[in-house]
Structures are given as structure tokens and as C-alpha cells.
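Q: Could you fold this chain for me?
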Amino acid sequence: MTGDPSRERRSFRCGNGTTGALKRRQQSPFIKASSCTVLVARRSLLLMMLGSLGACVTSTEGDFGRTERSPANDSIMKFGGKWRAKLQGELYSDFNMTDEEILMRDKAWALIRPPHAQDWVSTDLWDFIPSIRYAALHVLTDLQRTRLTPVIDTAFNPKHYYRALRSEKYASHHVRYERITTDINADREVFAAFIPVAERVVAMDGERMSALNRASDMEPGELKNAYARVDENRRYIGWVWRAMKFRMQAYAYAIKRLEIETPSPKVADANAALRRLHADFLAQSGDFGQEEFTIDDTAERPSRYTRRQWAQEDPNMVK
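A: Sure. Below is the predicted structure, expressed as C-alpha cells.
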């Protein structure tokens, strides 16, 4: 061989005809197409395997709605999240966490995780692709929780809760309304348990800053860690508030669409449960300095179709 060896190696891998065998392979477009197909298939399979693996090693919901941790999650993911945040210039505290800070994060998991996310991939061929999507949503939430990604929950679409709900097969269409009501009531219980823990964390942050102001011999690193911990706690509470808004939007959208698709008298129970959740949320928003939030009212709106328009589409429908 002559010339730059590194260039020749690259040329060999890219298949530019440096050998007779590669020349013969290039003569057949079918072989070239099949090679690309195999490459795409391998990459797709790798992505699916990584998604399945990620769903296995990330957090799941344990008792009382708290996060069920795994050694891989606590060590590898949080270590990577720490350095990603620092390299991006984000505030990151190296302080040990208080019991209340750990408990607040654990209890928040059942709320920040979207209601249609799942920590498993279905083996049923019909549900395999949708289950990958919902498992990926679970993985993305856990990646943000461990700070391996920046804030990405704002890109989640609340309409997907309804799509996941209608794709599931039930013996009766009334069960979908019962599922919404059950999810809403579960959110009320978790939110009610989250609030007192968050209040204690906020109070302890106040004590932390008061003690910091009284100290005159703090190192720059200690100051940074103290301010970063307060910032982390506030950001976590803010995430829960965004998640609550997301959930109420998802429930309201699903109720309205189901009422059109499969009407049921159980819609009244779902709407009543949603109003109670909304009231609980508003009652706490001012205490944590969060802005108020309103869901769309359930008042009837006039149809976009008038009797004359219906008559033009199908005269038999207007009598």
C-alpha cells in the first residue's frame, strides 16, 4: 500500500473499490440496497433494545407512590447527570440531602411521570410499537429526574393520554371513564401527600439561607452548594406544578373526546373528580408562589354545524 494508511483504512470501510471483492459488490445494486437495509435494521433493533433496557433500569413506582430505586439508577445515571449539569453550567449541589428532600422527590415521582407512561414493553405484537412509545416516555422522565437531560417535560403532549386510553381494549366503554376517574382520584391522594413534605422542604430552605447569612467564614464552594440546593428544590416543586397542569389538561381533553366518541353517564363522575383536583391545586398554588391555572370549562358550546349545513350534507338527518 502507498499513501496515508488511515485514508486507505477509511476507504476500505466505506467500500470505494480498493479491492476486487468490493468492486464486485458495487456492481450489484441489489447487494448495496440489502446492505443499507441490514444497517438500518441493526440500528433500529439497537434502539429498541436500548429502549427496553432503559425501561428496565429506570425507576418504577413503589409503595405510597414513591420511587422504587435501583443500584444502576442511583450510581450510573445520577453520576452522569451530575457531570452533564455541571458541564452545561447548571446549578448542582454536592450537599447531602435531608430526609425531607429525598421524600419529596420520591413522592413527586407519581406526579411528574405522565399518567400514560409505562415501565414495561408489551410482548403482544399488536401493542408492541405503542408500548415502546409509552415506555420511552417513562425513560425520558427518569432521565430528566436524574438530570441526564435538560428540562424536556414541557414538550410532552397531553393529548397522548387520550390516545393511549382509547387504544386499550376494554370489555365496556364505560371503563375508560372509570379509568380517568381513578387516575384523577389517585392524583389527589398523591398531591395531598406531597404538599406537607414540600412545605417542610421550603421551610428548611429558609432556615438554610438564614444560617448562611449568619455565617461569615463560608467557602465559595459551600455558598454555591447552598444556593444550588435551594434552586434544585424550587425547580422540583415547579416540575410538580407543571406535571399537575399537564395531567389536568390530559384528563380534560380525554373526557371531552370520549364524550363525543363513546358517550356515557359516567362522564359526570369524571368531570366532578377533575373539578375537585383542580380545586385542590388552586388551593396550594398561592402558598408556593406558583401561578394559578384554569382548565377549560365544560359549558356547552354551539356546534360549528347549523341545521342548514347539516341539511346540505345529509337532508335525512334534519327533520
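A (continued): Confidence is low (pLDDT under 50) at residues 5-34, 36-57, 297-307.
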